[in-house]
Amino acid sequence: MIEQDFICTDDFEANGIVKWKSPSNIALVKYWGKKDNQIPQNPSISFTLSKSNTTTSVEFKPKKNNENNILFDFHDIKNHPFGQKIKLFISSIDKYFQFLKNHDLHIKSQNNFPHSSGIASSASSMSCLSSCLVDIESLNSKSKDDSYYIKKKSFIARLGSGSASRSIEGPITLWGSSSSYLGSSDLYAINISDDVNKVFHDYQNSILIIDPGVKKISSSIGHKLMNENPFSNTRFDLARNNISRLKEIFKSGHLDDFINLTESEALMIHSLMLSSNPYFILMKPNTLEVIQRVLEFRRETKLPISFTLDAGSNVHLLYPISVKESIQKFIEADLLKFCKSNTHIHDSLGMGSEKLM
Length: 357
Fold this sequence. Notes:
There is one protein chain. The protein has helices at about 80-90, 120-140, 145-160, 220-225, 230-250, 255-275, 285-300, 325-335; strands at about 15-30, 35, 40, 45-60, 70-75, 105-110, 170-175, 190, 205-210, 305-310, 315-320, 345-350, 355. Helix 2 (about 120-140) packs across helix 3 and helix 5 packs antiparallel against helix 6 (about 255-275). By secondary structure, it is α+β, with helices and mostly antiparallel strands. The protein contains 8 helices and 13 strands. The protein has 2 domains: about 5-195, Ribosomal Protein S5, domain 2; about 200-350, Alpha-Beta Plaits. The longest helix is centred in the C-terminal third of the chain and has 21 residues, at about 230-250.
């Protein structure tokens, strides 16, 4: 499909409310660097999570005045400052939803995890809002098949946040054109959960909240700096190769290879942050302490636990469900003391966005 396929020219007026829940995701092969209009410099693969999510409702009704009235409440805070970003986003996508110019919107949203701290809150929030907007279209427009609407949700989510494209479906998704996957696209993510070894079907993800505070530099700025990084082309080539490698690992179920690849990807992205100009550091001292202890624990126990990082200080631990009890004991005994407020989120793989109303 091409961009023009997602333009909805149906012009209608309607009243209603839609509500969706959408999860965050954690990238295994990382997306870091983009071209114009949110096009990735390399494909990425992620695990969709089940418990770290955003819930959003959109009430729509014919507009009363010449201008659209868009209200945004976040965690019941009316006219939250995030609303300005939402308004800009909606104005930027109006050509894909002709009906938006006819309606006032009241958007209410909340997360069940800290925002802007490196747990991909933009992924869950933008995929959730996009699911709501596409749902309004599907309820009132000319009918198209479910496959179209799933792609459009991911397409629209991508325009708000690149990683959000990967939160529409699950448990394993790919965003970006790759010769390894038929049907892959830079415009939207696809579900690649089929033909995956059973060991990955119920993989676990524990998020250690090292620092719940807002990052000192946004991912958007980091992406821009990446395009001028002296190692960027090498990185993009390595990422494309890692997509092919991970596809084979998913089939084989070789966890040693999975651990090697995912940890290498995590450290590579943060090394690129260090080599940007200006450089920046998102890891905290306790991030490194946790990583070191995970490595020591794996050497001592031979249990298949690995770490990965998003664009922040928090550490994601990945492991099969068969070792969940041992890993949880390890977290509680050795790792929680490095987390703010002794906080961690135990999660597992999820299926993507879910309609609530």
